[in-house]
Amino acid sequence: MMAEYSAFSLLANALKGNKDWKPAWRKPDPKASYDVIIIGGGGHGLATAYYLAKEHGITNVAVLEKGWLGSGNVGRNTTAVRSNYLLPANTRFYEHSMKLWENLSHELNYNVMFSQRGCLNLAHTPAQFDDYARRGNAMRHLGVDAELMTPAQIKRLIPALDISDSARFPVVGGLMQRRAGTARHDAVAWGYARGADRRGVDIIENCEVTGFLRDGDRVTGVSTSRGDIRAKKVAVAVAGSTGRVMQLAGIETMPIESHVLQAFVTESLKPFIDTVVTFGMGHFYMSQSDKGGLVYGGDLDGYNSYAQRGNLPIVDEVMSEMLALFPGLARVRMLRSWGGVCDMSMDGSPIITTGPLPGMYLNCGWCYGGFKATPASGWCFAWTIAKDQPHDFNAPFTLDRFHRGLVIDDKGQGANPRLH
Amino acid sequence: MLITCPYCGPRDVIEFTYQGDGNRERPDPASQNFEAWNAYVYDRLNPAGDHNEIWQHSGGCRAHLRVVRNTLTHEISSVAFVRGEHTSTPRRKAEGKS
After folding, report:
1. So which domain of life are we looking at (chain B) (predicted)?
2. What is the rounded distance in angstroms from the CA atom of residue A3 to the CA atom of residue A117?
3. What pLDDT was estimated at residue A36?
């Protein structure tokens, strides 16, 4: 009997000293072969396994994770969920994700604490406000909610925000997506893991892929730290490690750089901010966790890194940005900081595709924004693996778009591995 | 992270601007080789380990530097001037000889 959670089980286990909790998923040894192997036991890999089993009836599946489940970016992000993009390909995909988020706790019977508290992008110049109006209109055109807010409305929503004319960057307005919000990131990994496990998927932790088994060009399995495993289809969903894993398959270059992104949390405060707010004159975003800590982050450190830890200049920059918006936080203590390795694509948009080798499927290029994409990424990747062709939602997210002039450059900034 | 500029000595990373992957080869501006341009603009080696990259000491002597840095540990194993890489005989020196 695997773990079920209820008020009764919580009470019963509390009275028994919490000694009888059952694991939420099995710890199986790898079989000799599977129909599908998914490399990477993060949010996207686990969601892919879940939707493969649930939507497509493919249950002879293994998820291989080099560390422990959820040890990568699914447990390192700042938990924001939104679908406020400009370009139709991104808007449609992330809005599909938003709709899956809205039903996710019910779907998984696991409380992912999805809280639609809104996401507000602050504008600090009239031109930026016009640009937000354009993006808001583009969103509404595709059926996504968006509304412009005045400084007075913003002040009512976030009293602690400095909107005075003497602020370093005065606020002239904002773009709000009310349906955006946050979710409990670990619960997303655990919920998908339990859901996949119950449908027969083997989740194999501490199993690092060290090479690919090949029959000519075709990928026929993987060698791992726990032996060779064969599979009809091998799917790669390894985020920041994409370059490393693809090199094992003989793909030397990718339109991706791995960069470190830091995140921070303060000591717990009383309710301070009940939305997600982003700064328009730099790169800063903040929300408040249910425990009360302010969770926030900023820009990449800016150089290639696989280190999962960053340097001090960006810490200084992020704190300065926070104080430009919220001078009242100057004496709040920072509790923790950490870093995650982001797979930064050259146009800021993801890749979910068949190939590039026969028998292989690729999911990468999530930049900063992989967490909010988790449900749709898994849903679309499962579709692509099961049917050997992309769904309409992920058809634009090819690997060869960079070489065919079909980039999805939401920022309109040209090739740069350091976009949103 | 400290980078030891060959001109200025060891300085904090905040004085430097990252200019990216130093392995890329820019095609001749007149080249119409799309493959080569595509590779230059989009494709990256992205190694986990020693990475050959270009930094500029923008807050110091402004020299462009070729740095070999480990992307797993941030350890820097070599720093050298980029200048002089592309012409084995600098023009002024050649003129001085004649």
Report:
1. Bacteria
2. 30
3. 97
| φ/ψ (deg, to 5) at A319 | -65, -40
Say if B75 is an interface residue toward chain A (CB within 8 Å): no
CA distances from A306 to A45, A139, A196 (A): 20, 35, 29
Residues of chain B with C-beta less than 8 angstroms from the C-beta of A241? 48
- pLDDT at position A1 is 44
Res B83: pLDDT:
84
- Cβ contact B18–A241 (<8 Å): no
Chain-chain contact of A417 with B44 (C-beta, under 8 angstroms): yes
Asked whether the beta carbons of A210 and A32 are under 8 A apart, the reply is no
Could you tell me the pTM of the whole model? 0.93
Residue A399 touches partner B, C-beta closer than 8 Å: no
Among A132, A122, A120, which residue's Cα sits nearest to residue A179? A120
Q: Do the domain assignments include residue B48?
A: yes
pLDDT band at B89 (very low <50, low <70, confident <90, very high): very low
pLDDT value at position B93?
45
H helix intervals, A16-150: 43-56, 88-102, 104-108, 126-141
Considering only the beta carbons, identify the residue of B12, B38, B71 that sits closest to A402. Answer: B38
Q: Is A250 on the interface with B (CB under 8 A)?
A: no
Is A398 in CB contact (< 8 Å) with chain B? Answer: no
Query: What distance in Å separates the CA atoms of residue B52 and residue A303, rounded to the nearest whole number?
Result: 12
Within-domain flag for B40 = yes
| Residue B16 domain flag | yes
Place of tokens 């830091």: A262
Q: What's the structural domain count of chain B?
A: 1
Is B46 close to A257, i.e. CB distance below 8 A?
yes
Q: Is B59 helix (H, G, I), strand (E, B) or coil?
A: coil
Chain B residue closest to A344 (CA)?
Answer: B46
| Residue B86 placed within a domain | no
pLDDT of residue A251: 94
Q: Does A349 touch chain B (CB under 8 A)?
A: no
Q: What is the CATH number of the domain that holds B8?
A: 3.30.2270.10
Q: What is the pLDDT of residue A352?
A: 97
Instruction: Please answer whether residues A204 and A62 qualify as being in contact, where contact means their C-beta atoms are separated by less than 8 angstroms.
Output: yes
Reported confidence tier of residue B54, pLDDT bands at 50, 70, 90: very high
Tokens 């938990």 — which residue?
Answer: A79
Q: Which chain B residue's Cα is nearest to A257?
A: B46
User: Are A306 and B1 an interchain contact pair (Cβ–Cβ within 8 Å)?
Assistant: no
Interchain pair A304, B21: CB under 8 A: yes
Domain that holds residue B72: 2-26+36-81
Listed as ranges, residues in chain A with pLDDT below 70 are 1-3, 420
DSSP state of A31: P
B45 touches chain A (CB under 8 A): yes
